[in-house]
Automatic annotation (TrEMBL):
Classification via InterPro entries: DNA_glycosylase (IPR011257), Endonuclease-III-like_CS2 (IPR004036), Endonuclease3_FeS-loop_motif (IPR003651), HhH-GPD_domain (IPR003265), HhH_base_excis_C (IPR023170), HhH_motif (IPR000445), MIG/MutY (IPR044298)
SUPFAM superfamilies cross-referenced by the UniProt entry: DNA-glycosylase
Family: Belongs to the Nth/MutY family.
Protein name: Adenine DNA glycosylase
Native organism: Streptomyces ardesiacus
Gene3D superfamilies attached to this UniProt entry: Helix-hairpin-Helix base-excision DNA repair enzymes (C-terminal), Hypothetical protein, domain 2
Cofactor (UniProt): [4Fe-4S] cluster
Keyword Nucleotidyltransferase: no
Domain HhH-GPD: 55-207
Record-linked PANTHER family: ADENINE DNA GLYCOSYLASE
Pfam family membership, one: EndIII_4Fe-2S
SMART domains reported in the protein's UniProt record: ENDO3c, FES
Enzyme Commission number, as recorded: 3.2.2.31
Amino acid sequence: MTAPTKPSPGGPSDPAASGVPLHAPVIDWFDEHARDLPWRRPEAGAWGVMVSEFMLQQTPVSRVQPVYEQWLARWPRPADLAKEAPGEAVRAWGRLGYPRRALRLHGAAAAITERHGGDVPADHAQLLALPGIGEYTAAAVASFAYGQRHPVLDTNVRRVFARAVTGVQYPPNATTAAERKLARALLPDEEARAARWAAASMELGALVCTAKNESCHRCPIASRCAWRLAGKPAHDGPPRRGQTYAGTDRQVRGRLLAVLREATGPVPQAALDQVWQEPVQRARALDGLVADGLVEPLADGLYRLPLS
């Protein structure tokens, strides 16, 4: 049996050769199969796109959608959120996880209100200058909300590029300079098409080229995929990071925050002590929430969500 060979220069792993042939089939597939998600509708606007991008980080669409819709109904513009206490953002975040994202989104809303008259800026540099906004979110908002040409590298896109172009099963654990260079090389030249490509390649990774049980028979670029053409070699890089939750400080933090979210006023220490039996871990989790600005300690052993 002949061993599979790696793609040669100018073949599937060469961005200059791979980009253009990939664009049309992926975008055509997206035009037919894209999910009807509320943040993709015209009425969502740039604020709706920004809210969705904060919420979707490390959180599946099925969990995000109901919270997103409640959030936009309550705070349809950044100024509506900015005038509320940060703790209300944490309360409305519910059980989406990683609640510091709620504080960051509140901070971004306040900055948008103060610096940009309440309108999410279209300029990439201005987006990047907002508190809580990193390179990914700035590029995503500029691309998805304003149709601009930026590489948008989330986990799904990175996996599609790793397989289709680089010929490996999984991308590195952290985004590399080589991945960013590849993403820029693969961008269509025309702005609107580049924005469509960003959304389409992300959807392909979410629905077809998934981390497990990839559906190559449904993939519009299976015949061009470097990983598939190489015989789907197994991942031989560093172990992939798995996410655990049960028994971790994250779980304890979530339980403590749940008590505070459901309370109408300050909560005594005794009520928080009931959520977790192990006192050292419970205290560490509570201290971490305070340090992160998610919980505000008061006199007499009382705690509440932050007011400022």
